[in-house]
Amino acid sequence: MTPVNKQWENLKNDYVHQVEKALSSVKHPRSKEVLEDIREHLDRRFWELPPDQQTLENFQTIISEMGPACDYAELLEPQMSKSRTKSQKKYLVALGFAAVIIFTLTIFLPQLNSAQEKNTIPGVGRIEDKIDYPFVNDSNVIGAWKSVDFVKTKTDFKPGEKSWKGELFLNHLIFVPNGSFDGGLFNWTKGFVINVREKTASAYDIKNIDDNVYMFVEWKGGDYTILHQKPSYYVLKKVSLDDVKSEAMFGQTADIPITSTIDESGRIADKIDYPFKNDPEVVGSWESVDSVTEVEEFKPKVKSFKGDLYLKELFVLEGGKTNLAVNWTKGLFLNPVDKTASKYMIKKIEGTTYMFFEWKTGDYVVAHRKPSFYVLKKVDRPYVESRTQDNIDYPFVEDTQVIGTWKSIDFVDYPDQFNPKVKNWIFGELYLKELIFLPNGKTPNSWQTWTKGLVLDSGNKTASKYIIKEIDNSIYMFFEWKSGDYTIRGMKPKFYVLKKE
After folding, report:
1. How many independent structural domains does the chain possess?
2. Most buried one in 65, 166, 197, 436, CB count within 10 A?
3. Which domain holds residue 110?
4. Same domain flag for 150 and 62
């Protein structure tokens, strides 16, 4: 068992033990089945995390989504009133959204907590819809749809009068021809949105109301799969693609700087070619103490984030260097690989110096979600290199077979896991889109070169293996993905699967 797996197992087992203890006070005859369902769900959530997000930070988020352990006992009490039940359903919401979350570090789905009332004791036994429908085209559904409301029944919707008073978590859906979605996560066929991982088939219905086209989509969360209740509906309005192309599919959308661009695949690229400007105040050692959504949320005596922080420390060195694969200039940390420019702010609070570091991950670059902030405290600590760094000083050896453009098609734990007929990666778009190998060991990226069998990254100081295999008469490349999981957390790298154009 890897250290990361062990950390997850400890957290999971501790939570399940708390639930088991709470259920013992109720003595419900089906408590054992509830515990098994919780374990199954938690394990599913763990394996659904992308490799670069299998962190204690995200493990704690998964646990916190489930709600207090005592809620389970209250939900199984036969005499519990409707009003009491209504406020004790957070964990069921979390269960239903297991496969919805890809590039995000936190989840908050308030609308399902209060959109429906419970009429019966929770059904034990997870509902699984029929999902093996053949694809049937529906030209009316193709395109962009923007969420405008969330209602209990279709008749509750009134254009211009929003029923749901809070923020809508689902911002939009983009239906792509041939049964897929922009951003992945779901499939579709005429009449249904299909969630393969959660095994739900949500009906959609398109209506013309007051000269506008609306879609009603069943939202099948834990209320449906666990409580066996009738699902509520998202209401979406047909819009142009331009209206949503810069918006996050889920959650709060990032404020994209005017100097940034969005490429054809939808990835944000910040301006990073800033000249170096010194900032003596930022130079030194910084220790992570918290992670917050907004700078104003930070309280020195009350930690906002309950789990372990992914970023442990940051050493800001003279001349624009750091201990990470990022550079800096006054006010910004610049990542030349991800093409992100992250703001930093330094504040003195209660006599201590803190830095607020905008954390731009794939949630920002790919999903356009608003980044959170790491909070770091300035400490007196000598700089010691702690990242894993490979030897990248290899002589060039020719490999004519590798020259050309390779497009990413899958992401797997190890090469033998790849099946050309069944895609392993189901969490939306792949972060790495392509690799281009030019003659004489060059690539289009100044920081990346290659020699036979290896891709060399001078920024992260990694040497990633590539393996070329013929499978079913097609040529594939398996490319070792050495992200922060490898350089910072010491995890074994996984593999991108690419096919030559």
Report:
1. 4
2. 65
3. 3-114
4. no
